[in-house]
Write a structure and sequence with these properties.
By secondary structure, the protein is an alpha+beta fold. The protein has 39 helices and 44 strands. A hairpin with a 2-residue loop joins strand 26 (502-504) and strand 27. 44% of the residues are buried.
């Protein structure tokens, strides 16, 4: 790719009193004037002025000469020409220009030319502002941490340096802007501005309510500190990340959410207020009383610890969770220990645990109420309806289990859950002891991945805190839990499994026993990383594995190329009979409404004992036959139950992403095709709110609203003639509009920040091998069958790729053969929703696509010729690094040590980001030599979890510029103080072309919904309120729906009967649903103080901004899983027992809908109504199908 070549211009006759700023501003009037408007896209381009000192000018600032570096030779030549025709002067002296001799500009300077031009005076002004924020001048005499109590009281529980001669300096650090407190003992406290909820000032005292704990660091002390004090003007002294400000405050510092600082005098306070305004912080005058109540005193903690160990785990976990989530103090909870103990005896463990869990929401509603009042009210309300009806129990579903979550940060241990989570081999085996397993995640204080800051040593936290927990275990709710293992996907999120010992049939089950029971790992036992990866197979999320395969499993060799490349890497075969049996088993355990009606898939991703990978249907196999290839068999195991990780019964739409766009630009694909695709997608998204049908199709296309079956509900509402514009009086339509605004924001945000643009007639399919040897080298076969009946044999030239694309050879052109002729193998013709790769060529085609294989890897196929590259690059080829092995078999502690090593050296994301930055600024895009080198490092980092061989961050080629492209900014606009330039790459144009709409007021909705649905003391009154809706209901949907219902059931006769019991049941189901939804909204929020809204849950999104979108995506995945479980249980409860008739189910759902209408202004009522509508619409369709 040809890029302009920078040019150096020599300038003389510069006034000796002028400096570089003055020369730069003088030249800017020329270079950014009319004569240069046509250059560099018309935007003011950058240039660099370097004044020459000169030997004869020792007493002067410079020699009167300078070198000016401009972006291209054309610009340099034009500057020289313009200066000869028009006088360019400075301080009355004409400047003279000529081509500089040598023409050898520094590489760093050339990189700077890609940055945007910034007026040096403005730059100096910004630098002065930053220096002003960071300057000394605010002195603090004391720093304390406290717990907020009612009646504007803050109880100080941790006072730093009390009684000692200690003072603190208070400044605002930059890059990013943070509060920085530094003591005379070099203790540092850092608080990000977004972590500050509010600030109150009273006299010389400042109270800060914090969203999350601060970051604590310790600088050098003694002689070392004195030396660093001298050097501190040059750089920030070296610091060490620590768990707490003092060793005695470990475990306490992370629990206290109020920072109390005392200024030395009014001058310091006034200066703080002035600087706070500079960074956008609001300070309020408010009187708060400071007390020392000893909420965490040793005596209280002793009572608390002793009591917690006597409680059932489910109850103890909820009690401790309230403390770790900053809702109630140990002293408050100890104060109601008798009431909790009595509730356990009287109402049972599940009811008591549930009431304790929901105490935090009642605290939000009434901050002044005592904890005893809140708890007794919850117990009373729960007792009133517990005996009548409840949601279906999750324990009956072996695909899910109630998972308790623990998050470990440098300062805190936070308990959440239990949440419905996907099951695995180990959990299913011990499903009756599921409470003995914990999912433990290691995160930063803001719940994002741990960040490694330059100049800060994090080894102390990693080695002394995280490693100590992994090696020695952790006490949670009075029980000792120990490290067990992890799944491969969880390790990427720094998450692992812990367990506590339990007894089964008189045998003590320990982590070692479970690991040993999984299989024979002797071939990999000396490599802790490989040993951990093999154990991880048992922790992969899979469907129930009660189907046993025949004893005579066929083991066969892999097919190889002449050079040894595996054509069948990770894929085996199974007979058609076995596939149908697996599919029937896979679907029969689901409720009738969830059973899949599609044909048996051609391919399954499976786990079978020590084997993992794909099984593809081969009709030549007869009977119940499974064949396993050598590449699939990872260790020996006697377990013969087949587990399904995924069944590929449908194709997946294909979306672009930034790395793929950058790769295609490297291969000379132009801008227009991408802009056309994005603009069509944006227009389609923005117009979604024009009709219910377009909204339904949009949600279906992007996979939103799936838990609530929103596509189906919206299409059925359209058939009822419900309109998004004319039904403003109904509670459902305004809700749908708000939900759609969240969905639109979600889709456009992904397009802007990820380039996630849909590509028509493109598919994402799982890869399998050509078992018949029919395909030639460079050919593929793909037959797509969608749920809506569309069928297509893909034919012609196709671009195929596999994420992540980091090498310019990771996308290749192949020929799709289309529909095979009659003489083609029958088995090949019948393969659906997968891409078949040839067993031909010197090298396996999947291996050429970013080192792919066939154990479940997904491949993208693009037919659009506009996106087909005009050139091709040789595929990457990297020799694997050797495994890191011990001289002995590794054990659980060795695997735990590897986890810490992985967290320390997990730089895969850094490599991927640096790769894109280098491609953006380099002249050859992804073909830049540094990008090729980074692609190799990326491959090694991907293998790190299996090889144990880390990538040294210091070995990475550095990005050539400190400036960052505009697309690099995260959703908060943060680029950590770097200068920003306008990227000329395609992803830069795509980024700028999308203007996000004003984000929906998610926070306002979330806070509003904290007002709990209040139940009347007189239950009959509540029933009467629902009864009213049967006789006096002005709701438009109710009126239209009733007309339709009369075609199926006798609504009038039903309503004239005694339906009191049924109404009570639906009210109870609604209450259970309310509680589950409230917990989902609170637990999956990015900000502890603000839950997500009901509309966001329905849309399956989170509107809150996040600097690490991967974290939000993980939470969205959890929301979808948890809300799907809640919706499924609610639907099943509404429908009632399976033996009742479809007509009776419709009437039950009709009552549930009326509950939604009666309490339409209450929290969760509208989404409860949407669930009820889905039940009604679905059963009506089932009756229609039976009539046909």
């Amino acid at each position: 790719m040809d890029e302009p070549v920078a040019m150096e211009v020599f300038v003389r006759n510069i006034p000796y009193t002028a400096d570089e700023i003055q020369v730069t501003r003088a030249l800017a009037t020329v270079l950014h004037g009319p004569s240069f408007k046509s250059f560099m896209g018309g935007a003011p381009f950058n240039f660099i002025v370097r004044l020459i000192k000169g030997k004869a000018a020792r007493q002067r600032k410079h020699s009167g000469c300078a070198i000016v570096l401009v972006p291209s030779q054309v610009i340099g030549s034009r500057l020289i020409l313009v200066a000869t025709e028009t006088e360019v002067s400075l301080q009355g002296r004409r400047l003279h220009f000529a081509v500089a001799k040598g023409q050898n500009p520094a590489r760093e300077d050339v990189a700077v030319l890609a940055e945007p031009y910034q007026d040096p005076a403005e730059l100096e002004e910004e630098q002065n502002r930053r220096a002003e924020l960071a300057a000394v001048g605010i002195t603090v005499t004391s720093v304390s941490f406290g717990w907020p109590c009612n009646k504007n009281v803050v109880s100080l529980e941790l006072e730093l340096g009390r009684g000692a001669i200690t003072s603190w300096s208070f400044t605002f650090a930059t890059d990013p802007i943070r509060v920085k407190l530094r003591s005379t003992e070099n203790l540092y406290i850092w608080i990000h501005l977004r972590a500050i909820q509010s600030i109150a000032l009273d006299e010389n005292i400042c109270m800060m309510w914090l969203e999350r704990p601060p970051v604590f660091e310790q600088g050098a002390s003694g002689t070392e500190a004195a030396l660093e004090a001298i050097l501190s003007g040059i750089f920030e002294p070296h610091r060490e990340r620590i768990q707490a400000p003092t060793s005695a405050s470990r475990g306490l510092a992370g629990l206290l959410s109020v920072l109390c600082i005392t200024f030395r005098n009014r001058t310091s306070k006034a200066e703080f207020q002035r600087r706070a305004r500079m960074v956008g912080l609001t300070t309020l005058q408010s009187a708060h009383k400071v007390e020392r109540r000893g909420l965490f005193s040793p005596d209280v903690m002793k009572l608390y610890d002793e009591w917690i160990t006597t409680l059932p785990f489910e109850v103890a976990f909820q009690v401790e969770g309230l403390v770790t989530r900053h809702h109630f103090s140990p002293r408050e909870l100890v104060g109601i220990h008798q009431e909790i103990n009595l509730a356990i005896k009287k109402y049972g463990v599940p009811t008591t645990a549930s009431c304790i869990q929901y105490l935090e929401y009642t605290r939000e509603e009434d901050e002044e109420a005592s904890i005893i009042q809140l708890f007794l009210q919850l117990i009373e309300n729960r007792n009133q309806y517990r005996g009548r009806w409840s949601l279906k129990d999750i324990r009956s579903n072996r695909e899910l289990f109630e998972c308790h979550h623990v998050t470990i940060t440098p300062t805190s241990v936070i308990l959440n859950g239990p949440f419905p989570d996907e099951s695995n081999r180990v959990i299913r085996k011990y499903i009756d002891h599921q409470q003995c397993f914990l999912r433990v995640q290691f995160r930063e204080e803001d719940r994002l991945q741990l960040r490694l800051d330059r100049g800060v040593d994090t080894n102390k936290i990693l080695d002394e805190r995280f490693s100590d927990i992994l090696r020695k275990g952790i006490t949670v709710a009075g029980r000792k839990f120990e490290f067990l293992g992890y799944s491969s996907s969880a390790l990427k999120e720094h998450a692992v499994w812990f367990m506590t010992k339990f007894i089964v049939d008189g045998k003590v089950i320990t982590p070692d026993l479970i690991r040993e029971s999984l299989g024979d790992f002797k071939k990999v036992r000396n490599c802790p990383a490989r040993y951990g990866a093999r154990i991880a197979q048992a922790f992969s999320a899979t469907e129930d594995g009660t189907l046993e395969v025949p004893d005579e499993i066929i083991y066969e060799n892999d097919k190889k190329s002449p050079t040894g490349s595996l054509y069948t890497d990770g894929v085996g075969r199974l007979s058609k009979e076995m596939a149908e049996e697996i599919w029937e088993h896979y679907t029969e355990r689901k409720p009738e409404r969830l059973r899949r009606r599609s044909q048996t898939p051609s391919a399954f991703q499976i786990r079978l004992g020590g084997a993992k990978g794909m099984l593809c249907v081969d009709p030549r196999l007869e009977g119940r036959v499974v064949t396993i290839r050598g590449s699939m068999n990872k260790f020996q195991s006697d377990d013969r139950q087949i587990e399904i990780s995924r069944a590929f019964d449908r194709p997946t739409p294909m979306y672009l992403n930034r790395p793929l766009v950058m790769l295609l630009e490297t291969l000379n694909v132009g801008l227009e095709p991408f802009m056309d695709l994005q603009r069509v997608a944006v227009q389609e998204t923005r117009s979604a709110a024009t009709s219910i049908e377009s909204a339904a199709r949009l949600l279906e296309k992007y996979g939103l609203g799936t838990a609530y079956k929103m596509t189906s509900v919206l299409l059925q509402l359209q058939k009822l003639k419900v309109d998004l514009h004319s039904q403003e009086s109904d509670h459902v339509v305004p809700f749908l509009k708000r939900m759609l605004s969240f969905a639109v924001n979600h889709i456009l945000r992904d397009m802007k920040y990820r380039a996630r643009i849909p590509v028509p007639d493109a598919w994402t399919l799982v890869g399998v091998s050509d078992e018949w040897g029919y395909l030639n080298e460079g050919e593929v076969f793909a037959y797509v069958c969608t749920r809506d009946g569309r069928k297509e044999y893909i034919k012609g030239p196709v671009l195929i790729s596999r994420s992540p694309t980091v090498h310019p050879g990771d996308a290749r052109m192949v020929q799709a053969i289309g529909e095979p002729p009659e003489d083609a193998p029958r088995g090949l013709r019948e393969l659906t929703n997968c891409v078949v790769f040839p067993c031909a060529g010197e090298r396996s085609l999947p291996d050429m696509l970013a080192g792919g294989d066939l154990d479940g890897d997904i491949y993208c196929l693009i037919k659009d010729e506009r996106l087909h590259p005009k050139s091709e690059y040789p595929p990457g080829n990297y020799d694997p690094l050797p495994r890191v092995e011990l001289d002995r078999p590794s054990d659980g502690k060795d695997v735990a040590d590897f986890v810490i090593n992985y967290i320390k050296n997990d730089i895969l994301g850094i490599i991927a980001t640096q790769h894109l930055l280098t491609a953006d600024i380099g002249p050859l895009c992804m073909a830049d030599p540094d990008c090729i080198q980074l692609a190799r490092f990326h491959s090694h980092a991907v293998d790190f979890p299996k090889s144990g061989h880390r990538v040294d961050a210091d070995s990475l080629p550095r990005v050539r510029s400190t400036a960052r492209p505009d697309w690099y900014a995260n959703e908060n606009g943060d680029i950590n103080g770097s200068r920003v330039y306008r990227s000329q790459r395609i992803i830069g144009h795509l980024f700028r072309d999308i203007q996000l709409p004003a984000p929906p007021q998610a926070g306002k909705l979330g806070r509003r919904q904290l007002r709990r649905f209040e139940r009347d003391e007189n239950q009959n009154l509540k029933v009467k309120e629902v009864y009213k809706c049967f006789s006096d209901d002005n709701n438009t949907i109710s009126r239209l729906l009733r007309l339709r219902l009369e075609e199926y059931v006798d609504v009038q006769a039903f309503e004239q009967g005694d339906i009191t019991t049924l109404i009570e049941q639906m009210l109870d189901i609604y209450q259970f649903y309310w509680e589950d939804l409230a917990y989902i909204c609170q637990a999956h929020s990015l900000r502890r103080s603000t839950p997500i809204s009901e509309e966001e849950v329905v849309a399956s999104t989170i509107a809150q901004r996040c600097s690490q979108p991967r974290k939000r995506q993980d939470l969205i995945t959890s929301i979808r899983r948890d809300s799907t479980t809640t919706c499924d249980m609610t639907r099943e409860s509404i429908e009632g027992p399976e033996e009742i008739s479809k007509e009776d189910r419709i009437l039950r759902a009709w009552v549930a809908w009326k509950v939604s209408v009666a309490y339409k202004h209450a929290y969760a009522a509208t989404s409860f109504g949407l669930i009820s509508l889905e039940v009604i619409f679905r059963i009506m369709r089932q009756i229609d199908a039976l009539d046909l």
